[in-house]
Amino acid sequence: MRLGVSLAVVLLVLSAGCLGGSNGTGYLTVEHVEELPQGEGAVSYDNLSPEQKSAFQRALDDDGSVTIHKGTDRNEFIDPGYVRYDGGIYRTTVSVP
Fold first, then answer.
1. For residue range 1-14, what is the model confidence (pLDDT) as tens digits?
2. Which of 7, 26, 43, 60 has the highest CB neighbour count under 10 A?
3. What Å distances lie between residue 92 and 8, 38, 62, 79, 97, CA to CA?
4. Where are the domains of the chain?
5. What is the pLDDT averaged over residues 18-40?
6. 3-state SS string over the chain?
7. pTM of the model
8. Using an 8 Å Cβ cutoff, are 76 and 52 in contact?
C-alpha cells in the first residue's frame, strides 16, 4: 500500500508540473549545449505541445529566459530537460520566482 501511495504522489507532482505553488508562474530557461550528457535523452521540438513550442521560441528570442504559466512546465522542460531543435540540442530548466 505504501508504494501505491508514494507512486500516486509522484504521478500527481509530475502531472501538475513544478509551478503548483505561488501564482502558477515561473521561468523557462533555454540554453544551447554541444551534446547530451551521458544517459540523457532529448525530446523532439515537434513533440512539444503548442504552448511549450511557443514558450521555447520566446525563450530563444528573448535571450534564453521567459515567464511561463502552470501547465507549460511539464516533464519535457524539467530536471533539466533537453530539446532537439533545428539541428541543435537545448537544455531547458524551469524555476519558480
1. 433 333 222 322 33
2. 26
3. 26, 16, 14, 8, 16
4. 23-93
5. 80
6. CHHHHHHHHHHHHHHHCCCCCCCCEEEEEEEEECCCCCCCCCEEHHHCCHHHHHHHHHHHHCCCEEEEECCCCCHHHCCCEEEEECCEEEEEEEECC
7. 0.71
8. yes
